[in-house]
Amino acid sequence: MYVGLKMLKGFQTVTTKTSVAEAQALLEKQHLWMLLVVDGEKLVGYVRDEDISAALPSMMTTLDKFEALYLLRKLTIGMIMRKDIVTVPPEMEIEAAANIMHEKNLAGLAVVDRSGKLVGYINRTVMLDVLVEEMGLRQGGARIVLEVEDRPGVLKDITGIIADQGISIISTSTFHQDRHLVVIRMAIGDASAIEAVLRNRGFKLKTVEDFAGEWRS
């Protein structure tokens, strides 16, 4: 899966000439915390709601409402925007983008093409949706978890057994930390029969109770 296939395209942008007052109104109206800033079609920065709140000096509290609004209209986004925005290309693998967000603790990434044109935006909500899709949850079925040895062909062996039973696989995921887990969702309502077959073939099936001690400790 690639970033360009999952990125958001219908999102709000402002320009460097947009007034701070107008940007503030957009944030409040659309319940946003951040706006991307463009110059023509090119991404040049971003501005957060806290940047707008901090745009005026503390002395603004001594001004009356009309004076404050006047100064807000004079301030433009180009004067206060941030330029340290992290971008990714649409052809990047989506898991690589997720890793960047994780390592840098980012809520989202702007997506730009090779010319610097803003083409999309991807955030944590999109990443969570991708996870749900990848795991096949919305398609229903039954899920099994196996702890396996790390060897070539182990996944082929498991899926081959499932195929021999005439069962369709919805999704397959692997997890590697201190152990190797394979999670398979199948297009069946009850997995007990295939679990028995896999156990008879020497595979170690895991249930929630096998892991419960880890979150109870």
Automatic annotation (TrEMBL):
Stretches assigned to the ACT domain: 143-217
UniProt keywords, alphabetically: CBS domain, Repeat
Alphabetized Pfam families for the sequence: ACT (PF01842), CBS (PF00571)
Ranges where the CBS domain occurs: 7-62, 81-137
Taxonomy, superkingdom: Bacteria
InterPro entries (alphabetical): ACT-like_dom_sf (IPR045865), ACT_dom (IPR002912), CBS_dom (IPR000644), CBS_dom_sf (IPR046342), CBS_domain-containing (IPR051462)
SMART domains reported for this sequence: CBS
Protein name: CBS-domain-containing membrane protein
